Amino acid sequence: MNVYDITIVGAGPAGMFAAFYAGMRNAKTKIIDTLPQLGGQLTTLYPEKYIYDIPGFPKIKADELAQNLEKQLTMFNHRYCLEEEVIRLDYQEDIIEIVTNQQTHYSKAVILALGNGSFQPRKLRLEQAETFENNGIDYFISDLMKYAGKKVAVAGGGDSAVDWALMLEPIAKEVSLIHRRARFRAHEHSIEQLKNSSVQILTPYMIRGVSGDKSLETLHLQVAKSEETTDLNVDYLIVNYGFTTNLNLKDWQINSSRQGIPVQSDMKSSKDGVYCCGDITQYDGKVDLIATGFGEAPTAVNNALHYIDPKNRTQPMHSSSLFQ
Ligand SMILES: Cc1cc2nc3c(=O)[nH]c(=O)nc-3n(C[C@H](O)[C@H](O)[C@H](O)COP(=O)(O)OP(=O)(O)OC[C@H]3O[C@@H](n4cnc5c(N)ncnc54)[C@H](O)[C@@H]3O)c2cc1C
Questions:
Q1: Which residues have CB under 8 Å from 263's CB, separation 6+?
Q2: I want to staple 150 with a disulfide (CB 3.0 to 4.6 A). Which of 103, 216, 235, 290 is the partner?
Q3: How much is the ipTM here?
């Protein structure tokens, strides 16, 4: 049994900074998230938006903030378990079992940085779509080069869909962008770029069916509010319909409500060894901001380490004294 000191569930800004801080304190640390990438809401919901209330940054794009947090983490050899959803916590004497949809992890303490819950992509609601999942239909892009020289369609009408189409254009053989409405909900600048690109814009089109022999080959499209149909040959379809969140802590054996998890001033939940940080924490006067989560993260880590071994000081040395 490989037991970690601290396991952090949720790799949004709060969880990422908690992981960095745990590294600073030499804790053997693991991070689990449902998404295939780090960043939580930053990378999933608004990567291209500027944030103005991060201390020390007059303004910074959400995606860039996530990248900076990730860069900070490269100092440490943490273990990452992405694309795994935690479904419950079990408690065995001094060890907490973190049960995911894939395996069980073991940890002396847990930090829950769950935000509003685990993110799930809104899927294509077609019977055959599941057959082609990861076999032509993708909901995330983890490696852009996978699409090099391929015929790719992107479905969706928001910023991310437009951005993905533009990023794929120089790499893929052909890129089509399919949206059920005539207008995109994207930055004017991106729309301008789109108009000047070779991306084939298919609006207002709906995807009515997908087919293929061993992998995805054809999208069956219909013009919205019309009987007109057409087929599009593709190697890949990237679906970008946004995300839903799921927060179900019924089996976690900790006090929680729909608003989140009540914590004490040391960020401890109702259960020994389980601490929290970020949007998920609830206490009087709580404000849901990234800056708040950044403050809660070191409190959670230092108190978790003190729980594991009372010899660990809750007030650690300053980072400026650790690295000269
Ligand atoms: C459009 C928009 C603009 C915003 N602008 C600002 C701003 O300008 N300034 C500001 O301070 N804040 C802003 N926010 C809010 C800010 O993004 C959140 O406060 C912040 O992301 C919370 O961070 P977090 O780490 O607590 O949670 P999240 O970022 O929500 O991350 C939580 C992570 O936990 C994972 N997770 C949850 N449950 C599980 C599970 N069971 N198993 C595995 N993984 C799980 C999720 O997949 C997710 O990746 C904005 C939010 C939005 C939507």
A1: 269, 275, 276, 281, 282, 283
A2: 235
A3: 0.99
